[in-house]
Specification:
The chain is of the alpha+beta class. The protein contains 5 helices and 8 strands, in the order H-H-H-E-H-H-E-E-E-E-E-E-E.
Length: 166
């Protein structure tokens, strides 16, 4: 009889835990539907509508940490581990550059040509060589670097975290 009571209690605890997990899942799904959705194109569209200038880049203004101007659900779908590990890019004055979004990314060297940052990188996932070009745009005094990777336009902003330092 004691064993049956214990089994019943265990089953009750498991049922409560399953209910809580299901409620958490549905709450998360509800929050995602009710929050305003942003797209990776919104920053790009804003840059296009406010007539950004294409500045002549200097190494001094590129050096430092960069972060994605917008992280959207599309980023998390395309890049494995993006939610867990985040995203960052570091540009150094010695010509070195490294970036990652989740487990994807690369490291290598760069050169500056007008408003374009040309990069020769080694892919972090499979060690294959890759080249990337980042185009600089300035809007409201902030510098942005945009590039296309895996058919997705990425827009980076100088500084750490959401607000950046500039």
């Amino acid at each position: 009889m004691k064993i049956m009571k214990r089994i019943a209690r265990i089953l009750l605890v498991l049922a409560v835990m399953a209910s809580l997990l299901a409620a958490g899942y549905f709450l998360r799904a509800y929050r995602m539907k009710s929050e305003p959705q942003t797209t990776e194109a919104s920053t790009t569209e804003a840059l296009a509508t406010e007539a950004p200038t294409e500045p002549v880049l200097t190494v001094e203004e590129l050096v430092g940490p960069w972060h994605l101007a917008e992280e959207t659900n599309a980023i998390f779908d395309v890049f494995p581990g993006a939610m867990e590990f985040g995203s960052t890019m570091e540009i150094r004055s010695n010509g070195a550059i490294a970036w990652y979004i989740g487990a994807d990314g690369g490291a290598g060297t760069y050169s500056v040509d007008g408003s374009v940052l040309h990069c020769e990188l080694t892919n972090a996932m499979d060690n294959s060589p890759m080249t990337m070009d980042f185009t600089a745009k300035r809007q409201d005094g902030q510098l942005f670097l945009t590039t296309v990777y895996r058919d997705m336009e990425l827009c980076w902003r100088w500084g750490e975290g959401e607000a950046g330092k500039r």
